[in-house]
Design brief:
This protein is an all-alpha fold. The chain has one domain. It has 10 helices and no strands. Helix 3 crosses helix 5, helix 3 packs across helix 7 and helix 5 packs across helix 8. The radius of gyration is 18 Å and the shape is globular. The chain starts with a helix and ends in a 6-residue tail after the last helix. The model has no long low-confidence stretch (mean pLDDT about 85).
């Protein structure tokens, strides 16, 4: 499977199942973004310190396994032909909330450290740990085992993953950040529109998950057939 084919399949899946993705992501993310906005307006000023923003960061981190895990279970259900409803996806996300949270913390620390070391190590970490969430949720692996397994399994797909990330970023996030920059430069008071933009950011991030899952599925199929990685 070529990079173009993987990307086309990913964008097609995202488009065809956008309503289901919205139903999984938005009801969790939108209220959080409302709380974050009101908290920032009430308690944070222009000179706010990182410690002041910790409750906001913690809130987003605690909610992430619910909708991100839900999206992964939804994709797996589509592959198996048994589509899950949004509520079932949330319940599965809650079931695996703790191990997914631990994995997210480990991934966040590894990726953050990598980007602090001149960006390239961060890109390597993102690509090499791309399958960890799937191994954790779909194969029942522990967070450390999922990370180790992903590091080994992504080796043949490293450049495909990196190239796919770059294309998705250019196609989806560059226009998004461009709009945010223009509105910020115009000193526009975003209000509820800012909440919608932040929610849109979370929805767009699903594109990366869909692409990673598409590559993961190709890897799994080839391994089950006894074929070497492409």
């Amino acid at each position: 499977m070529t990079l173009q084919g993987l990307l086309m399949d990913s964008f097609r899946f995202f488009r065809n199942h956008l309503v289901s993705i919205l139903l999984i992501v938005v009801p969790v993310v939108f209220p959080i973004e409302l709380v974050r906005t009101h908290y920032a307006e009430a308690f944070l000023g222009p000179d706010a310190q990182l410690i002041s923003e910790f409750p906001l960061l913690l809130l987003g981190l605690l909610a992430y396994p619910i909708y991100a895990g839900g999206v992964i279970f939804f994709m797996a259900s589509e592959i198996s032909g048994t589509r899950l409803k949004a509520t079932s996806c949330w319940l599965l996300g809650l079931k695996y909330w703790w191990p997914f949270l631990v994995l997210s913390l480990l991934l966040g620390m590894a990726t953050g450290l990598g980007f602090m070391l001149f960006i390239v190590p961060g890109v390597i970490v993102l690509a090499r740990f791309a399958f960890a969430e799937f191994d954790l949720l779909l194969n029942g692996q522990s967070p450390p085992d999922a990370l180790r397994h992903s590091w080994d399994e992504t080796r043949p797909y490293f450049w495909i993953l990196v190239a796919g990330y770059l294309v998705i970023f250019a196609a989806a996030y560059v226009p998004y950040f461009g709009l945010v920059f223009v509105l910020g430069d115009m000193k526009v008071d975003l209000g509820i529109f800012g909440v919608l933009l932040d929610t849109l950011y979370a929805v767009l991030s699903v594109l990366f998950t869909v692409f990673r899952f598409r590559v993961y599925y190709v890897m799994t199929e080839r391994r089950n057939l006894g074929l070497r990685p492409e």
